[in-house]
Membrane protein NfeD2 N-terminal transmembrane domain-containing protein (Paenibacillus marchantiophytorum), 175 residues
Amino acid sequence: MMTLFAICFFVGLVLTLLITFFGGDFFDLHVDHGAAHGHGGPSFFNLSSILASLTVFGGMGYMLGKVGMTSVVLIVLIAVGAGLVIGWLFFLLYAKVIYKHDHSMKESDFDLSGQLGKLSVAIHGTGIGEMMFVLQGTTRTLSVRSEQGESIPKGAKVIILHVNKGVAAVTRFSD
């Protein structure tokens, strides 16, 4: 049993050091909530929490065995409990400190509904034109089509209603 604890401790420690120096919290299990694929927050099953649990489980089990505790069941229970507590603390650190300040792009960053812009290429009837708009300080362009099938001249202000297959449906914006 001591070998299992030693292996868990060293594997957890080595992987933790590798991730610390080379990055890559690439193992993060998320639960699918039906049709919605948004992430409400970090999962408890992230690599940092799992490795912290594994390392503490192995270290605590090995240490308790070395100090003379003879009940294997009690050693395992204490080691599992300690591993879960430390894993939970790592999760709280991850959720409250690290994830809170993560400004990675989210699905909502790609929703262009309501975006105001100006046509750089006119829309002729049911044809396709192009609009320019500013998003997060960058001027961007997008293929557009009139929602009502009307012609809209170059330079007109338009607002995006929705985007379908890379082409936005727009309507004329009036001040």
